[in-house]
C-alpha cells in the first residue's frame, strides 16, 4: 500500500474569530463529538476498540518518542514507519476498515516486530495479545453481510441475517411500534428451546422489554426483545458535555436542539431526535455549526442502521455568502431538471417536485471536529425525508476538507498524458461546483408520492399522475409509515448518492451557475474547460470506483463508488460513443477520453435519461424497477475486472486527516493544531483523551 497523505484540517483563523462564549460552546460540542469515537469503533468491528487502546497506550508509553521505543524494542526505522502508517490510517478512519470502501486495513509491519514494539510494558503487551490475530487475519477482507469474506458489527451472533423472513418481520414490527432503526443493532442467539433476537437500542437508560411478535408468522415461537442501553457509557459522557455546552448557546433554538438531543440519547427515542433536527433546521447561519447523532447508514448491509457522527464547524462568511447567492436562485435552477414540467411556472413543477424550492441554509465551514469514519467534503441533512419535504434541510460544505482535493491528483494516471496538466489544473474547480450542486439540488430536490395517513394522500389516487417513463399512470407510491430507506433498503444510499451526483453533473454547464462562482468568458478557467473537465472526471471516477468493488464477494464497499461506476457504465452504453476507454493490460495502462465536441449534444441528454429514471423510481417507491436498472448498471463484468486490476495497480495513496484540539484553561479556550504527519496525527488523538 502506498503511504498515506496526511492533511492538516486548519481551523485557527476561523476559531480566532469567535467570541469567548462561542469558543466555549465550540469546545464542549467538540468534546461531545469526539466522545462518540468508541461508539463508531464498536460499530466497525469487535477488535477496533482494542486496537485503538493499543495505539494510544504505545504513544503514552514513550510520550511520542517513537524512535526511543523502537530502539529499545530492536525495531528498525522502516518497520516503525509501517506501524505509524497503520496507526494513522486506523485513527483517521476510526477503525480498521477504510471509511471509503470498507476494505480492511492490515498492518504492513511484520507481526514479530509489532510484538517486540508492544513488549515495552505489560499493559501494551496484554492489549496486543487481545487483538493481534484479528489485526492481521484475512478474511474478513471487508465490511458487509456476515460471510466467509466479510463481517459487520450491526448484526451480531451466528447467522443473524440467515432468515430474510425474520429480518423483514422484525423491521415491520419495529415500524409498527415506531422504533426507528438508525440507533439500533440486531443480535441473534439461542436459549433452551427458543430462537431469540435482541434489538439493541442506543441509550443511557437500561431496560429490557419483550415485544409482542406473535402476529408475524415467521416470528412465532421466537422471542424478540427491545434492549436499551447500547453504547450507554459513551452516550452518558456525550450528555455531560452537552450539558456544559448548553450554558453557552447563542439562541433558544440551540438550547432546544441540545435538550432534545440529550433526551433522545437518554431514552433512545428517535422521535425526540427528530424534534431536535427540526429545531436544528431553524438555527440559521449559526456562529458554530454542529451535527451529532446516528446519521449515515452507509455501512449497514441492509441500509437502515446508522453510524454515529459528531461534527463541529465554524462558518466562513465570504464563502457562505457565495453559496447562499446560489441558493437564492435555486428555485429557477430546479426548473431545468428533466422531471420538471416545462412552461408551468415556478409555483408548480409537476407531480415529482415541490411547487416552490425554498432556499436552504447553505454554509461553508471549517471543520473543528469531524468524528466519523468518512470525512465528506459536503453534507445535506437531516436524512429524514418527512422533515426535508415538510420543513427543509441544511447544506454544509467543509472548506478545509475541500482544500485536500487541491493537493492530490486523484485518478490522474487514468487521463491521457497530453491532457494531464489541464485536468489537474481544472479538476478542483469543477469538483467544487459538482459537490455544491450535489448537496443543494441533488439531495434537496424531489417530492415523494405518499399515503401520508390512512386514506390521506399527497396526490389524487383516483387520478394518479402520469409516469414520464411509461406514459401511464403511476402504479406505486409510499404507503403509510414507509420511508425511503425502509423501502429501498441496501439500494437507498447508493441510489440517493447516484441521483445527487447526476444532478450536479447535469447542471454544471448552466451559465448562471458558473457565473455565481466567477467562471465566465473572462475568467482564467473558462466555462467550456470546466464543463469538459466535469465529463472527463465522470469517466475517471467511474473507473476509480472499481477499487471499492470486492471481486471475491461481488459486493460494492462504498455507495459513491458504486454510483460513479453506474453513471459511467450508463454513459458508455447510452451516449453514442462519447467515451473511449483504452486498456493495455500488459503495460498496466488504462485511460479514458471524451469527445469534447459532443459533450452537450450526447452527454447531457444521456445523464438526463438516467437521472429521470432514478428520480421517478425514487419518488414512486418503485424499488423493483430501480433494482433491475441499478444492479445491471453496477454489474462488474470481465472487461471491468481487467480495468479494476489496473486501477488497483495504480491506486492513489489514501488520505488521512489531522484535526486540531481545543483545551480549557480556566474559562478560556485554546486551540492546538498538529503537524500533518503520522506522528502529529497520532499525538492529536492521544491528547483528545477519548
UniProtKB/TrEMBL annotation:
This is Dipeptidyl peptidase 3. Belongs to the peptidase M49 family. Its cofactor is Zn(2+). Binds 1 zinc ion per subunit. It is found in: Cytoplasm. Pfam families: Peptidase_M49 (PF03571). Keywords: Aminopeptidase, Cytoplasm, Hydrolase, Metal-binding, Metalloprotease, Protease, Zinc. The keyword Zinc applies. Its EC number is 3.4.14.4. It catalyses: Release of an N-terminal dipeptide from a peptide comprising four or more residues, with broad specificity. Also acts on dipeptidyl 2-naphthylamides. Its main location: cytoplasm. It is an enzyme of class 3 (hydrolase).
Amino acid at each position: 500500500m502506498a503511504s498515506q497523505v496526511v492533511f492538516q484540517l486548519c481551523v485557527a483563523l476561523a476559531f480566532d474569530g469567535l467570541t469567548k462564549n462561542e469558543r466555549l460552546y465550540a469546545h464542549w460540542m467538540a468534546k461531545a463529538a469526539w466522545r462518540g469515537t468508541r461508539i463508531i469503533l464498536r460499530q466497525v468491528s469487535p477488535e477496533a476498540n482494542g486496537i485503538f487502546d493499543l495505539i494510544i497506550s504505545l504513544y503514552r508509553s514513550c510520550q511520542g518518542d517513537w524512535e526511543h521505543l523502537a530502539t529499545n524494542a530492536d525495531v528498525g526505522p522502516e518497520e516503525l514507519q509501517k506501524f505509524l502508517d497503520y496507526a494513522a490510517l486506523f485513527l483517521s478512519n476510526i477503525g480498521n476498515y477504510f471509511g471509503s470502501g470498507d476494505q480492511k486495513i492490515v498492518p504492513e509491519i511484520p507481526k514479530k516486530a509489532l510484538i517486540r514494539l508492544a513488549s515495552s510494558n505489560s499493559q501494551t503487551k496484554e492489549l496486543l495479545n487481545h487483538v493481534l490475530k484479528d489485526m492481521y487475519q484475512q478474511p474478513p477482507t471487508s465490511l458487509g453481510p456476515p460471510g466467509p469474506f466479510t463481517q459487520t458489527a450491526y448484526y451480531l451472533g451466528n447467522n443473524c441475517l440467515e432468515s430474510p423472513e425474520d429480518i423483514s418481520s422484525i423491521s415491520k414490527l419495529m415500524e409498527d411500534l415506531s422504533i426507528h432503526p438508525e440507533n439500533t443493532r440486531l443480535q441473534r442467539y439461542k436459549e433452551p428451546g427458543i430462537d431469540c433476537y435482541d434489538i439493541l437500542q442506543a441509550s443511557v437508560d437500561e431496560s429490557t422489554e419483550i415485544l409482542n411478535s406473535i402476529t408475524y408468522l415467521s416470528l412465532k415461537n421466537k422471542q424478540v426483545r427491545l434492549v436499551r442501553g447500547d453504547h450507554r457509557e459513551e452516550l452518558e459522557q456525550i450528555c455531560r458535555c452537552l450539558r456544559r455546552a448548553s450554558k453557552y448557546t447563542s439562541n433558544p433554538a440551540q438550547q432546544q436542539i441540545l435538550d432534545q438531543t440529550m433526551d433522545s440519547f437518554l431514552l433512545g427515542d428517535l422521535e425526540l431526535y427528530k424534534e431536535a433536527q427540526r429545531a436544528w433546521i431553524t438555527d440559521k447561519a449559526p456562529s458554530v455549526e454542529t451535527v451529532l447523532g446516528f446519521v449515515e447508514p452507509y455501512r449497514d448491509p441492509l441500509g437502515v442502521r446508522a453510524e454515529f457522527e459528531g461534527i463541529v464547524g465554524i462558518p466562513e462568511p465570504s464563502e457562505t455568502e457565495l453559496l447562499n447567492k446560489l441558493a437564492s436562485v435555486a428555485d429557477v435552477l430546479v426548473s431545468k431538471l428533466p422531471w420538471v414540467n416545462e412552461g408551468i411556472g415556478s409555483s408548480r413543477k409537476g407531480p415529482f417536485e415541490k411547487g416552490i424550492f425554498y432556499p436552504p441554509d447553505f454554509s461553508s465551514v471549517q471543520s473543528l471536529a469531524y468524528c466519523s469514519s468518512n470525512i465528506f467534503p459536503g453534507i445535506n441533512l437531516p436524512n429524514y425525508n418527512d422533515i426535508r419535504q415538510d420543513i427543509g434541510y441544511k447544506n454544509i460544505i467543509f472548506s478545509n476538507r475541500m482544500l485536500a482535493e487541491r493537493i492530490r491528483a486523484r485518478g490522474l494516471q487514468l487521463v491521457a498524458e497530453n491532457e494531464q496538466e489541464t485536468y489537474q489544473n481544472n479538476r478542483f474547480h469543477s469538483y467544487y461546483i459538482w459537490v455544491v450542486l450535489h448537496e443543494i439540488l441533488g439531495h434537496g430536490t424531489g417530492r415523494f408520492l405518499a399515503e401520508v395517513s390512512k386514506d390521506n394522500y399527497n396526490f389524487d389516487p383516483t387520478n394518479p399522475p402520469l409516469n414520464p417513463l411509461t406514459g401511464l399512470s403511476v402504479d406505486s407510491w409510499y404507503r403509510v409509515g414507509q420511508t425511503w430507506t425502509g423501502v429501498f433498503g441496501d439500494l437507498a444510499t447508493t441510489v440517493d448518492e447516484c441521483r445527487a451526483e447526476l444532478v450536479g453533473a447535469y447542471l454544471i454547464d448552466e451559465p448562471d451557475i458558473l457565473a455565481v462562482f466567477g467562471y465566465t468568458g473572462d475568467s482564467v478557467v473558462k466555462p467550456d474547460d470546466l464543463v469538459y473537465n466535469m465529463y472527463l472526471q465522470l469517466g475517471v471516477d467511474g473507473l476509480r470506483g472499481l477499487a471499492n468493488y470486492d471481486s471475491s464477494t461481488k459486493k460494492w464497499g462504498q455507495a459513491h463508488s458504486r454510483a460513479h461506476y453506474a453513471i459511467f457504465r450508463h454513459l458508455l452504453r447510452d451516449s453514442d460513443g462519447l467515451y473511449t476507454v483504452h486498456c493495455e493490460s500488459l503495460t498496466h495502462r488504462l485511460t479514458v477520453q471524451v469527445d469534447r465536441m459532443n459533450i452537450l449534444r450526447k452527454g447531457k441528454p444521456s445523464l438526463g435519461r438516467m437521472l429521470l429514471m432514478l428520480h421517478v423510481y425514487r419518488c414512486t417507491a418503485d424499488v423493483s424497477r430501480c433494482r433491475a436498472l441499478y444492479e445491471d448498471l453496477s454489474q462488474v463484468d470481465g472487461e471491468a475486472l481487467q480495468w479494476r486490476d489496473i486501477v488497483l495497480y495504480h491506486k492513489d495513496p489514501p488520505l488521512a486527516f489531522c484535526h486540531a484540539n481545543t483545551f480549557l484553561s480556566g474559562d478560556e479556550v485554546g486551540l492546538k493544531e498538529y503537524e500533518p504527519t503520522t506522528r502529529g496525527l497520532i499525538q492529536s488523538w492521544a491528547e483528545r483523551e477519548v
